[in-house]
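Write out structure tokens for Fibronectin type-III domain-containing protein.
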Amino acid sequence: MRKVFFVVLALVAFILSSCIGPTPLVPPNIPTDAPIQDGQTNVDVDGVLLQWAATGENLTYDLYLRRVTRSVGTWQLVASNLTEPRYVLTNLEPNSKYEWKVLSRDPRGRTVESPIFSFETAPHLYVVQAVEYNSGGPVEGVLVCFFDESELLVQKTTNAEGLVKFATDRESLKIVMKKYARGVSIVEGLKPTGKEAKTVPIRLATNHPDPNDPINSNLALNVEILDLSNNPIDITQPITANFKVQITFNTQHLPRLIYSKLGSIPGAGTITNPRSSASNVYLATFTMGIAGFKGEVPLYVVAYDANDNRYEKIIYLTIQQSTYALDNLYRPEKDLLMAITRRRGIEFYSLPGLENILPEVAPEGSNLLVLIRWKLWSAASGKDRPDAYNVYRSFDGENYTLIATVPYSTTYNYAYDFSSELSPGKRVWYAVSAVKGDFETELVDFGSVVPLDVFNVQLISPADKETNVSRRPIFKFKPTKQLFSPEGTVTYNFNVAIYPWVQSETYPMTAFDEEGNLVNFSTTNTNVVEVSFAEHKWYMFWVASGVVSPLFECPDMLEAGQTYDWTVGYAYAIVEDEDSVAISVACDWIYSSLRYRFDPISYMEQDAFNQFTVGSGL
């Protein structure tokens, strides 16, 4: 009887559980400790963590998102089959409203949808890119701290492109950038950048690699704006005349350089002239000319110390020009548009003289910049002389951005664009206008150019350390990469240089033609180039007044038993079309700072020299 009772009881329990059914799903909701609440405003655009809570076991989630503009957008499936109730959003638009919802699913296939939640991103976007230096490549892993005065708002780390993004309601920020083995880099007075990144050099530390070392702290840059009589200027009012800028740099290291420039970031004179500079001082005063500038114009002050800590201060001034009523202004005429890719990077900041070369920058290991040059104004044109020229850049041929204002000069009739947005194979357009007083001409189209990629040269024969080489050797080498361009066929150019310096001190040797010109060897592919010693006349040579000149003719064969080094003295690839030139330089070096001058910027030493010893036979 008792056994029957338990059987009946079990049967009743089974029937009751079958009637109750599975636990119903509950719509997901936002927990109170989630970082983004429903209706939250001033949300960042990158690294936005959405969290929700749901009841059930082994649930998976689909996340939907839509941007609300004038009309409600369509739902986009952002992620599906998530096993955790959280997801990080990236690359959102600033100053935008977003709605999101979650679909929860259990192992039986039952689903339930959350309410629609919303948030609004902050109005002001700051995009910062850490680079090796002006025209250099990106630096990954840099800690970027965003401050509003002394308040730390957020810390982010740069990605492989050297980028971080941050959206906020603050209209001006200070950023501090740190990475071990690099100097501290600070920018003060940064306004929202929009989608175009603010590039900030963060250079290799010279002596003290730890950015948190107390000796790298307490950096300060004080800037005073004075009139020409040294009286303070109220910069909330328009500036109508030239003025002075007095700069005090505080650092625990020795000071190295102080720069100042209106309109664009200053650096080495090679690519940022005209600008003001002073070296090895804590205090500097410069006179700033306002010709060509109008409206809101940034004044950039940049200082470096001996550890390559960098401090940049941006002060926005309102400049008011006199009225230019006539329209008899000279229109710019293009002289040259050239994209320059350099295999080995150069740091575009330094004392006057030789630039400091490093084997690392962008594209990785290189520089990339564009030279925009116009013809000098002449009184014979019958047109009024401009006060300045404005240079504009576009990546679509339609929408142009001002990148430089160059005051009129008989020396500086050019500008360099060294934006981190430049890239091999990416077409870029330029236009230039003339400015006088408050008047600016229409933009004059300077055409477009497609920068080339980098390449190097492989030395093949004679091989390094080879012995018993012919007294009339055949030099063999080849480009390491085939370059292509939509603007035409890319041509590689080289010469061969022989250095008899292993056993004696004398001049290097290369081939010259009957007119005393360097013999150039060219190819359009990556096949092996052969240069026969016997087929050319070889001369000892040197450089005089910047010109490579033959000194005296060499014998028609190398000296038996002598040891030599050989290399390609210069190597560059070039392509031209009707409106531009693109050049990629692999090397251009003779000795010390001497070069052949095919590199438009500076000298660039070769990676390899093959040493060989001549045999006794022919």
